[in-house]
Amino acid sequence: EDVPSQTFDNKDYFCGKETFPVYESIFTEEGETIRKIAIEIEKPPQIEIHVWTIRKGILHHLYVEKLSKREFEGLPYFKLITRTTLSQWKIFSEGEAQISQMCESRVCRTELEDLVKVLYLEKSEKGHC
């Protein structure tokens, strides 16, 4: 059988691991970019949002906020970008902590882009889980 393509519903599993929706919001004003990466977690049911403030390619501020699903649904600009596993989210969070230290004084555009790519799951070939 073919491996089903990655779909965006709550019953989606990747190699037997449950996946969670990941959202992104990016907006720019006055030379500053605010990029938000959010994951919807079921236990406890909440949205974890990682907020990056980037000025001239330098990560100036990073913080995490947690919202209820109802609060999140009222926020504009977020779009679903992928689904990921909790283990990939952990790698993302740990990488984010390292980058925040590295990028306080230098441009880190590629590092930030590469970090977001960690969340995208590779489609596995049949039998390679």
UniProtKB/TrEMBL annotation:
InterPro entries: CHRDL1/2 (IPR045717), CHRDL_1/2_C (IPR045716). One of its GO terms (molecular function) is BMP binding. Its main location: secreted. Pfam families: CHRDL_1_2_C. One of its GO terms (biological process) is negative regulation of BMP signaling pathway. The keyword NAD does not apply. The keyword Secreted applies. GO terms for cellular component: extracellular space. Keywords: Developmental protein, Glycoprotein, Repeat, Secreted, Signal. It is found in: Secreted. Residues 10-129 form the Chordin-like protein 1/2 C-terminal domain. This is CRDL1 protein. The lineage of its organism: Eukaryota, Metazoa, Chordata, Craniata, Vertebrata.
